[in-house]
Amino acid sequence: MSDQLRVAIVGGTGYTGAELLRLLAVHPQAEVVAVTSRQESGRPVADVFPNLRGHYALSFSEPDMEALAQQSDVVFFATPHGAAMSGVAELLRRDARVIDLSADFRLRDQAVWEQWYGQTHTAPEYLDEAVYGLPELNAASLAQARLVACPGCYPTAVELALMPLLKAGVVASRGIIADAKSGVSGAGRQAKLGMLFCETADSFAPYASAGHRHQPEIDQILSEMAGTPVQCLFQPHLTPQVRGIEASIYAPLVDQQADLQALFEAAYADAPFVDVMPPGSHPQTRSVRGSNMARLAVTQRGDTAVVFSVIDNLARGSSAQAIQCMNIMFGLDQAVGLNAPAMLP
Ligand SMILES: NC(=O)C1=CN([C@@H]2O[C@H](COP(=O)(O)OP(=O)(O)OC[C@H]3O[C@@H](n4cnc5c(N)ncnc54)[C@H](OP(=O)(O)O)[C@@H]3O)[C@@H](O)[C@H]2O)C=CC1
Ligand SMILES: CC(=O)N[C@@H](CCC(=O)OP(=O)(O)O)C(=O)O
């Protein structure tokens, strides 16, 4: 076992932490050596998550950065915004590498981050160094990264859908609309009134119409892809399902002769976790449940490119994509441990 990557997880009792544990339980080249929870410290992992019985002898521990750095090669933060930035300096100083599933290092501009997240950033010196963990965009930088800022779940779905169009320059930089829907696990495992079964079942609604914190992240990354400022109107909705994001994206074409299907197939020819579906397809969230696959379908409607994008918010939208980043950072095959097909039905 000595050649196994030693993995620690801060925040192992949330949904993304539980998904990291589930996926890493069968990763052939990584071993979880520590997992933290302040509320469940001392309790066996398999007591809290019965699906992991027989996979882990570990118990949850307190989040002690010095101990985690000594024990592990890489530390995942599956914590609310604000936690990773208080631990990152200590971990990097002790040569652990860090993969942050929260938003602490996603935005380049400290003032913009503070405006949207409503707190002071305490480690702004790492904002430039952090590599945005979208493997199809940043594989080369990820291979060298000490600190990875994993994308938000909605941004993953939207950015993968728009990357081929923006890189080829076939759509306008204004007037793009991303109409996105998320399952309830996107809100995390903490009880919140609006996320209860009786509040969400048999219903469907938009939210955050005044602006969502994923808006500046989406605009930042789309602008990097295009090499020019891009504005995308992003509108989220809550759907009564556990996992899954669907984004329907509308982008005004500046080149109406472009073969969009060919463009997408070429852009993702070497991407093991992007499936460009045949023309006329309607991807379903159930086709990606529990898997790292993003399924895309592209079509042209008059002067508009229409892209449908589905991911599992807990897998491609966070934990599985974070493991794909880990694989790249440590020189492993990017797909190792992630090849299981989605659960269906
Ligand atoms: N849910 C989703 O679909 C997605 C979530 N994300 C992001 O991933 C992160 C985790 O999300 P999610 O799993 O849903 O969150 P949860 O609220 O479900 O879980 C949070 C976890 O972090 C721990 N924690 C909370 N505060 C601290 C702290 N200050 N220091 C150390 N540990 C702490 C909690 O355990 P304890 O309090 O016991 O220590 C718990 O294990 C968030 O930043 C979220 O925005 C990103 C993409 C998708
Ligand atoms: C359904 C739901 O509530 N979803 C969450 C997004 C989850 C996510 O991606 O989280 P971070 O970007 O914060 O890491 C929301 O809209 O706030």
From TrEMBL:
GO terms for molecular function: N-acetyl-gamma-glutamyl-phosphate reductase activity; NAD binding; NADP+ binding. SMART domains: Semialdhyde_dh (SM00859). It is an enzyme of class 1 (oxidoreductase). Pathway: Amino-acid biosynthesis; L-arginine biosynthesis; N(2)-acetyl-L-ornithine from L-glutamate: step 3/4. The active site is at residue 153. PROSITE patterns: ARGC. Keywords: Amino-acid biosynthesis, Arginine biosynthesis, Cytoplasm, NADP, Oxidoreductase. One of its GO terms (biological process) is L-arginine biosynthetic process. It catalyses: N-acetyl-L-glutamate 5-semialdehyde + phosphate + NADP(+) = N-acetyl-L-glutamyl 5-phosphate + NADPH + H(+). Its EC number is 1.2.1.38. InterPro entries: AGPR (IPR050085), AGPR_AS (IPR023013), AGPR_dimerisation_dom (IPR058924), AGPR_type-1 (IPR000706), NAD(P)-bd_dom_sf (IPR036291), Semialdehyde_DH_NAD-bd (IPR000534). It holds the Pfam family Semialdhyde_dhC_1. Residues 6-145 form the Semialdehyde dehydrogenase NAD-binding domain. One of its GO terms (cellular component) is cytoplasm. Gene3D superfamilies: Dihydrodipicolinate Reductase, domain 2, NAD(P)-binding Rossmann-like Domain. CDD domains: AGPR_1_C, AGPR_1_N. Catalyzes the NADPH-dependent reduction of N-acetyl-5-glutamyl phosphate to yield N-acetyl-L-glutamate 5-semialdehyde. Belongs to the NAGSA dehydrogenase family. Type 1 subfamily. This is N-acetyl-gamma-glutamyl-phosphate reductase. It comes from Oceanococcus atlanticus. The gene is argC.
